[in-house]
Structures are given as structure tokens and as C-alpha cells.
Amino acid sequence: MIKISLDVMGGDFGPEVVIPGAAKALERHPEVTFVLYGQREKCEPFLERFPKLKERSELHHCDVAIGMDEKPSQALRRGRNVSSMWLAIDAVKEGKADVAVSAGNTGALMAMAMFCLRMMPNIERPAIAGIWPTARGESIVLDIGATIGADARQLLDFALMGGAMARALFDIESPTVGLLNVGAEEVKGNEEVKEAGRLLREANLSSLTYYGFVEGDDLGKGTVDVVVTEGFTGNIALKAAEGTARQMAAFLKMAMSRTLMAKIGYLFARGAFRMLRDKLDPRKSNGGVFLGLNGIVIKSHGGTDAEGYAAAIDVAYDMVKNGLSKKIENDLKIYHAGQQPPAGPEAA
Amino acid sequence: MIKISLDVMGGDFGPEVVIPGAAKALERHPEVTFVLYGQREKCEPFLERFPKLKERSELHHCDVAIGMDEKPSQALRRGRNVSSMWLAIDAVKEGKADVAVSAGNTGALMAMAMFCLRMMPNIERPAIAGIWPTARGESIVLDIGATIGADARQLLDFALMGGAMARALFDIESPTVGLLNVGAEEVKGNEEVKEAGRLLREANLSSLTYYGFVEGDDLGKGTVDVVVTEGFTGNIALKAAEGTARQMAAFLKMAMSRTLMAKIGYLFARGAFRMLRDKLDPRKSNGGVFLGLNGIVIKSHGGTDAEGYAAAIDVAYDMVKNGLSKKIENDLKIYHAGQQPPAGPEAA
Fold this sequence. Notes:
The structure is a homodimer.
Chain A: E1 3-7, H1 15-28, E2 33-38, H2 40-48, H3 51-55, E3 57-61, H4 72-79, H5 84-93, E4 99-102, H6 106-117, E5 127-133, E6 138-142, H7 152-170, E7 176-180, H8 191-203, E8 209-214, H9 216-221, E9 226-228, H10 231-256, H11 260-268, H12 270-280, E10 288-291, E11 296-299, H13 306-321, H14 324-339
Parallel strand pairs in A: 1-2, 1-4, 2-3, 4-11, 6-9, 7-8, 7-9
Antiparallel strand pairs in A: 5-6, 5-10, 10-11
Helix pairs in contact in A: 1-2, 1-13, 4-6, 5-6, 7-8, 7-14
């Protein structure tokens, strides 16, 4: 049985989206149970509408809800031990849940998750991994904005964690991992990326296949299963791509409504347009995975609807079911055992 | 009269694309004359087909053509003073041309341009500025890959140069300039970007309007006229967006050919699809502008066709006609005059 804790107050809409989203996810995964944290009087009316969900949920009242604009430090001060966000994360720490989902603000959620769950041994920085729709299917991209300016060692950690996540999500034995860079040649790029490439080649890991450098257009092509980059560039690349997709959709819509002929054409082809819209539906790739902590937290888009929130719960479900945490722990252990200096007087 | 020098051997196709491209551009700008550098026996057969172009061109034979994969250092060693690429740039230095255009490899072209033309006074790094199609029209984005890791002072220089280019290209008095970042709040981002923001606010320039931070999705929205970023992130954001656009176009094509109904719809709406294709035509935004050198060099995509190459010549034409170099020089002079320490014994 998989237990998922939800920050019901998180996101632009709170219970109005979270509870119907959970109900949708429950239909797909009837063995799940939920631990809900939120303001009782706001949650109960929505919960009444979904008797199956109500039956498989445990609602815990809490007064404090973290705002979407609250700064991480303020959220931590005001919300520690008492907010729906903190309590959903804390449920993972206490073993009451296997994974937490929140649509609350990213900065506050990351700060609380780091404070509550702490970093895994040997990991210096957390990362947020996103699922990127590609021409071949899906890839994992990390870090899309947990922190800024990862060094070579930290990029290597991201590669290890991303590789473990790809094995959990895509069920492949040795996922390909590329480092995002401005060219494929070994001499290109900044020092950190070049050094990370050297470390990955030398580590010669069995848990992943190091592909080499990839460029910005390889993201959409799906050249590798996992793309590793530091958070500043990753965040900007993600938003640039999302923006381009939205812009093209708007152009297409405009073109299809300009003339009578185009409108007639649209009517004939509307099945095709529907397929296209489904394929490009950003809600389907909702769910950023926080990696590197002692416990899994999933971040949903703040402005998503119930369908999108259910997709974030799906990601949470997959991560637990496929043993993400164990996979990361094992991979780190194997890597660091290989890096251990030989025992001897100098190895103190 | 505007004189444009062309590296006829540059690009994946050399004279086969460059000469028809120049002929197309000449139709739009009949007052232009060209100085062509290339292997005579390869250029003349193409030139014969365009008598008007031949009449307004001066062909200079040279033996050496720089390969698309040649490393900058090798290109410089082998091609200095003798290659079509070098000679096209040198024509700008010698006053035989107002601007040079090349579809040759970016690294070699930048190395030669820096070596031949040298940096402008007060500029430490060159930048490549690209023209980005947006929902509102076009924006300028720089640096899209000249160098990696610009610091705050260099980002400020990029803002000054990008502002001057926007005035030359868009004919607006005080273009809006934004710094690309992971959030709009002042506390977000890396130190260099935050410091550049402070410098831009304090400089209080009349040549541009500092907007503040912009995010990846603001690129496609066209939130500001000029987006400033360092070359690593700029290159990756550009390629991620181009990749997304290509991927969506491929999905659309596939959707429109899957069913008979979709095919019929496509026939009715083909005018709309043609309009969409024109609007999104990457050839139209071909032409990266090298900024910060004593002379203007335009980089065309290596794999473009005659239409795309003509667009790069259009950019070259606009930059000369609207006095880009003078505008940059003036803006730099005004900025640095304002930054001058007061005269006195300490100001030695």
C-alpha cells in the first residue's frame, strides 16, 4: 500500500483543485491512501463530494497555509510545525507517508523540505528534476531550479540521482545521461561542465551510460534519457521552451480562425488538433521531483487544475512504487565505495 | 552607398548559396555594392547567372577556405591574411566594406574578427546578438554564444550594445532592456546578474530603459526589446527554443497526415498553414550580429539557403544604414564619461 501526503492548502486554488485531483488519481491507483493536511472547514465540503477518496483519506486540521508569494525564510519561520506544507513533508519523515505532494511555492517548499528531511549522506545540494516531453517520449532534466551554480562534483551527483530516477520512471537498465553544454566537443563549455564530464567518464558507472555533452536542441529531440545542468541554466531553458510552445500554439490558433477556409479546415481536422493538444498538454508533464533529500517531495505547478494535480500524484506514485529512494541510495553507495581511498595509514 | 563584403566560401554550401542570396538581397537594396572573397573558379559560374549582381560586385580570388569543423586556433593559423573569411573581415578594417557577412563556423569567425578588428575601447568581451521572433514582433537577445561566463560589468556592456542595436534595428528611442534570470524578484539569481541589475539601475541611462529581471518565458512573449544574458545560458536557451519549435512543427505535420479527415482539413486550411510557416520561418531571423568589435560582422547560419542568407545580408544592411557602430560608440562614451572619477591627484 502506498501512502501519499498532500498539502491541501498549497497552490493557487488549494482544496478546490487538490481534492478533485486526488480523487482522479485514486481512480487510477485504487490501492493508494492519502494523508491530507489543511483547514478542516475548507477541505471537508470538497471531500464530501468524493466519498471514495474520503474513505481512503485521513484529514488533519492545521491553521496555517503558506502563501504563494511568501519568502522561504518567512514561510519557515511562520509555518514550521504548524502549516499544511510542513506537516505534509513531516509525514514523510515520520513514516506516516511514503511521499509528499504540494502545489505550494517552490522556494518555501524546498526550504521546508531541506530543513525537515535533511540532505542524503554524500549529497551537498538538492535538485529539482522535471519530466520533459520529447520527440521520442520523455526525458528527465535536472536541476530545473533548486539552486544556482552547481560545481562539477554536484553535477556528478545530479547525474547519479537523475539516472536512478530514469530507472524508476522508464524501467530501463542503464539510462543515457548527457551534460548540457554549448557544443558537443570536449573542449567546449565552462570549467565545471568539462570537469563533470571527466568525472563521469572516469567513474565508469554501471547504473548509467554517460553519453557526453548535449546541446539545447537535444532536449526536445530526446537524445538522452537524462539531461544534467545547473539550476540557473536549467530553469531558463525550461521556461524558454515552455514559452515557445505556448507562443506557437497561439499562432496556430490565430491562423486557424483568420479565414472562412481555415475555419472549415479546422472543422475537418479537429480530431487531429485534439490529438495534438493532448500530446502537448503541459498538465501531463506536471510534477517536479525533489532529489537529494531523505524522502521524496513532489512539486506540482501552482496554477494547474485537477487533471494536472492528478498527474503530479501519478509521478509521486511511480517514484514510490519503483523504489526511487532505495535506487538513489544504492547508486550513491556504489559510487562512493569506488571512490574510497585504499585503507592505509594515509587514508585517515 | 553601402558596401558589404562576403565570405563566399563560408557555410555548408559556399557560393551555391551565398551568390544567389546576395542577388536576392540586391533586389531589395539596389544601392548596395559587394566585395566578394572566394575561389574564382568556384564563384564565377554562379556569378554569371546573376548579371546585376556581377555588375555591382568585385570578386577577389583567394585560395584558402575555412572548414566548418576547423578549430578557431587552427583557422587563424591557416587562414590569416589568405582565407576568404579573413579577407572579408579585413575589408571592413581597411574601409573597403562597411560590414562583413559570413556563414562560416562561428568559433573561427569570432576568433578572426577579434584578431583582425580588435575590441572597442572600454569593451572587454564581444557578444553575439540574435534576433528572436516574439508574440509582439522581434527582440534582441545577447550574448547567444560568443563567450562563456560574463561578469556584471560585461553584462552591463552587453546591455549598452544591445540597446544601441535595438535603436538601430527597431527605430525606438529608449528600448527596454531586461536581464535574464530565474525570477523577477531582486533577491533571485546569481551574484553577477544581481550586481548587473544594480549597475544598470544606478547608471540611469537615457539610451535605454532598464526593465529589471525577465524569465525564460519572457523571451517568447517579447516582454522587453533587449534580453541580456551571458553566452552559456543564452546559447542553451536559444537552442532549446528552436528545438521546441521544430518539435511542435513535426507533431503538427504528423497530426495533419494521420487521417483522411485531417488531410481534407489541411487542404482547406493550407493558406493558414502557409501563413503560419512564413511567420515561424527560421530563415527570417537569420543573422547574428557580432558586437563590441571595431567593425560589424554578421554571422549567417551555416546550413541556410539563399533566402536565409539574403536575410543575414538584410541585417547587415540595416546595421550600417542605421549607424550601429556610431550608436554603440556614443552610448559607451556617454556611459563612461558619467562613470569618470572626478579629476584630482587620486584619479591618476
